[in-house]
Amino acid sequence: MKKVLGLVVILSMMTVMFAGCGENDAVADTGSNVATETSDTESSDAAQEDTTEANDTESSDAGSDSLVVGFSQVGAESDWRTANTESMKGTFTEANGYELIFSDAQQKQENQIKAVRNFIQQEVDYIVIAPVTETGWDTVLNEAYEAGIPVIIVDRMIDVSDDNLFECWVGSNFKQEGYDAVSWLAGYLEENGRTDEEINIVTLQGTIGSSAQIGRTEGVEEKMADYPNWTMLERQSGEFTQSKGQEVMESFLKSYDDIDVVIAENDNMAFGAIDAIKAAGRTCGPDGEITIISFDAVQAAFASMIDGDMNVSVECNPLHGPRVDEIIQKLEAGSSVDKLQYVEEGVFPAETAAEIMPTRAY
Ligand code: GZL
Predict the structure, then answer these.
(1) Secondary structure of 256-282 in the HEC alphabet?
(2) How far apart are CA 125 and CA 188, in angstroms?
(3) Is the backbone of residue 296 left (phi > 0), alpha (psi -120 to 50) or beta?
(4) Least enclosed by CB within 10 Å: which of 64, 126, 210, 344?
């Protein structure tokens, strides 16, 4: 009710302020990198100005009886992240009974914390967070808890002192993804008569401290112990981006002349590694010198496998929107929800990429 009254006051003020403006003029840009569309929750834009310098924030149009969801997204660092954002924006629409306030934290936790405080200030109905890293969430989640706003975590996990600070988590089993990568490599080497060969591996890690990086690194490390003839030459973070992945791979190629396998903890870093390998006059992929193992399995990874550059991509499902919608509807109906909800995932090798790519949703 508070929100409706505030809205009437704000809209009256807006009528006076913009009397001479065209009907659909967007709300005046409130500062650099803030994409704010005209919405009937103009009061939220004033509150959002606190995060102007920190987040790209946008609100969708909505009716006053819509459920207001504040979503703090990591950033836009990868194809996977784009697909994840599209899934959330495609789900939390006015037609589905929602108003979405979306904030892009540009991969900085401090921006996510600002965005969550902004959501609390706006008295949203639900807060959804895709946390950039696992730690540092207790204080702001306590604030949301005190404000009585349920928090749902998607994608990466958080490490908090009390798991009552969030309703539930939807995401991937990252350690299992690491196990799957090792299982694929063992099978691939066996098929090629290389089971007993000395295998030298380098790893492009994701954002250090993110559960995707922690789980994939730990999963690979744990299962590699079963293969004493495999050596992990070095691991370094490529921060889940293509440019940094290429940069790190260039340094690996300068340091080691006997790399057999690259494990890239996401497809975009794999694309950067492939560019670096080719620029160095080397070859990769099923018919190349260096085997490329990646994670995410976005459509561009299938294209890379079809082009003969990448050997395999271990899927990481980004389509969390419908799952979160289902959770919110259950909570609205007073039902309980499972604390941890894993999404289904597979392993996609180059051999079947052409056949499967047309069926891929992202
Ligand atoms: C995984 C997700 C990771 C992806 C990357 O769930 O957190 O972050 O693997 C993305 O592509 O940047």
Answers:
(1) CCCCCEEEECCHHHHHHHHHHHHHCCC
(2) 49
(3) left
(4) 344
- Domain boundaries 34-170+319-342, corresponding CATH code: 3.40.50.2300
pLDDT reading at 282 higher than 70 = yes
Owner of token pair 């790209």: 56
* Confidence (pTM): 0.84
The tokens for 132 are 């950039």
Domain with CATH 3.40.50.2300 in the chain: 34-170+319-342, 174-316
Within a 10 A sphere around the Cβ of 255, how many other Cβ atoms? 11
Instruction: State the virtual CA torsion across 59, 65, 70, 71 in degrees, nearest 10.
Output: -80
Which residues line ligand 1 at a C-beta cut-off of 6 Å? 77-78, 80-81, 155-156, 172, 210, 212, 240, 266, 295-296, 316
Q: How far apart are CA 230 and CA 263, in angstroms?
A: 13
Q: Specify the residue for token string 């696992």.
A: 134
Tell me the fold of 174-316.
Rossmann fold (3.40.50)
Q: How far is the CA of 288 from the centre of ligand 1 (A)?
A: 27
Distance, CA of 78 to CA of 345 (rounded, Å): 18
Q: What is the pLDDT of residue 268?
A: 98
- CB burial of residue 299 (10 Å; 0-12, 13-18, 19+): middle
CA 203 to chain CA centroid, nearest Å: 20
**Looking at residues 152-158, what average pLDDT do you find?**
97
**Burial readout 28-61 (b: 16 or more C-beta within 10 A, e: otherwise):** eeeeeebebeebbbbbbbebbeebbebbbbbbbe
Q: Which of 261, 263, 157 is nearest to 215 (CA)?
A: 157
CA-267 nearest atom, ligand 1: 11
User: Can you read off the two tokens belonging to residue 243?
Assistant: 């440019």
**pLDDT grade for 238, boundaries at 50, 70 and 90:** very high
